[in-house]
């Protein structure tokens, strides 16, 4: 009987360890991980508002950027060095007051030279002139990058 108890105890311990391993969160299939976030580029051309709505339907937002590492990571998701895409920057509430759709602090920028440059362009366009950000016309149809927490 003591041997049976020992075996039962070992079985319980090993099954609990497996549960902990299964509890480790991973990005959904097709999404790429950086830190505590998962990112995915969608090539379907849509307006900026539609892109944000599509991200929200996946429990995500258009990607925000808080460092050069994140900026470069987003660029690595794009299919080519000339691909433009939407990300979460916007100044639609107040001109010149840039915000992220996920509500995080707008604490980093990587504007292309001369950007942002238009009062009527309120949405963040990533990879302008193959590197920086642009304030784009929100109705332009292009791909987008979503980000969500693990």
UniProtKB/TrEMBL annotation:
Signal peptide: 1-23
Pfam families named among the record's database cross-references: Lectin_C
Record PROSITE patterns: C_TYPE_LECTIN_1, C_TYPE_LECTIN_2
Domain C-type lectin stretches: 34-147
Keyword Lipoprotein: no
Record keywords: Disulfide bond, Signal
Cross-referenced PANTHER family: MANNOSE, PHOSPHOLIPASE, LECTIN RECEPTOR RELATED (PTHR22803)
Full protein name: Galactose-specific lectin nattectin-like
Species this protein is from: Carassius auratus
Gene label: LOC113109306
